[in-house]
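User: quick one - fold this with zinc ion bound?
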Amino acid sequence: MKIDLKEGDVTKFQTQLLVVNLFKGVREPAGVTGVVDSALGGSISRALKAGEMQGRLGETLVFRTAAKIPAERVLLLGLGDKDSFGPEEARRAAAVALWEAEKLNLTEMATIVHGAGIGGMNPTQASEDTALGSLLAAYRFDKYKIDKEKSKPRVRKLVIVEHESAKLEQMQQGILRAEAIAWGQNLARDLVNEPSNVMIPVEFASRVKEAGSELGLEVTSYDETWIKEKKMNLLWGVAKGSAHMPRLVEIKHKGAGDNDPWIALVGKGVMFDSGGISIKSSSGMEAMKGDMGGGAAVVGAMLAIAKLGIKKNVYGIVPAVMNSPGANAQNPGDVVIGMDGPSVEIISTDAEGRLILADALSYARELGASYLVDIATLTGASVVALGNRVAGIFPTDDRMRDVFMENVSITGEKLWSMPMFDEYKEQLKSLTAVIKNTGGRGAGAITAAKFLEYFTGGKPWVHIDIASKEQADKSYSCYRKGATGFGVRTLLRFVESW
Ligand code: BES
Ligand code: ZN
Ligand code: MN
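Assistant: Sure. Structure tokens for the protein plus zinc ion:
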């Protein structure tokens, strides 16, 4: 979808659908909505008086304009309470408007920006979120659908109309940001949505290379020989049960000087998690094609970071594997020593994410990263603790954690800080090796994080567990059912503000 910014008066603008908005409780519309109401001879205020709409967030009412203005229809869009309005509400409102246009089979639309000047949102932020909500809502993954369903019309063009010329330049900045973020985030969604018979490690690596080359971003894909040479045995131990060979994908963005520190973003890239020899039960197992949601978020964030030319030094590292119960698969009870850190007894081959991340974190330190972040669909226990809309953040560095938390009000990707007391390490003691890869029934999300901590070498680090946030079970925010790209904005904002 193409987004244009035009200066002008909405009552003179020709379009199939013109979107104007309304906060909750407003009976006599003011501003642009008021101007449109007058041009329509009071249709909007009459509908409001009749109680046809309250202005709740996402509520809509469509008016045919009967040639009173050049726009064929007007969509009145509820923004909810003025007091609780912010970036997430702007994105949600924009998404609802786009889906409304799709329901009407329209191919283009125009909108005013949602919420400039409200809730601390400047014109740049408001236009960013209006554009971003639209771009994320327009995303579809329908490449395998039959032609009939594919040919449903799409909204190809969105025009943002603004009458104050002084705001245009700031708004254009916001739109450019939205386009960069949506590009990264929608690509992350493709990586997750692709089935694992297509999205094998080699394919994952080549998609990253292809996207990166458009930006001149340095992408290296290391093969299984290199992985074994590097003694990444924890990574190889997971990978070796599959006929599909692993890759370690490294993305390098040098946006700052030679003496500036490097941040490493490490993402879990399990293309499909069958559980391996500790095989999962089959019900719902198809969702495990999304077990590279963390890796996809890293890729999406790196693409946005590069496209926006963020002046920071950042590595993106994704260990990409298939966790399969093959003839050469590792077994429970195996003892493995990785690139760095303690020996590990494999209790469950289904606790594979922490194994591949362990070697990837060691590698990030070898590259010279000073600050470590990892993001992973790591544990079902985190879903039990926090549900499927909130991710857990597990810090060893409170400053890093605070920066992540401060950005939640903008990213809308909810995070909740989890405890990292050393008491939890007790659960990882192994009889045969130094540590084991599972910690028993209690605090499963935390013991997974404590496992990872062994491989961070005392460097400042946060771990983010996004299990079941990578795919939406039903439509919410600006997502339909399916991959969300959760984490892309969280990582981007962290890098920008660190
Ligand atoms: N990929 C799963 C975690 C997961 C669960 C992701 C639900 C998305 C939705 C992970 O590899 C896993 O299998 N974890 C096990 C760990 C256990 C064996 C200690 C789990 O959570 O059951
Ligand atoms: Zn997994
Ligand atoms: Mn698993």
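One thing worth noting: The radius of gyration is 24 Å.
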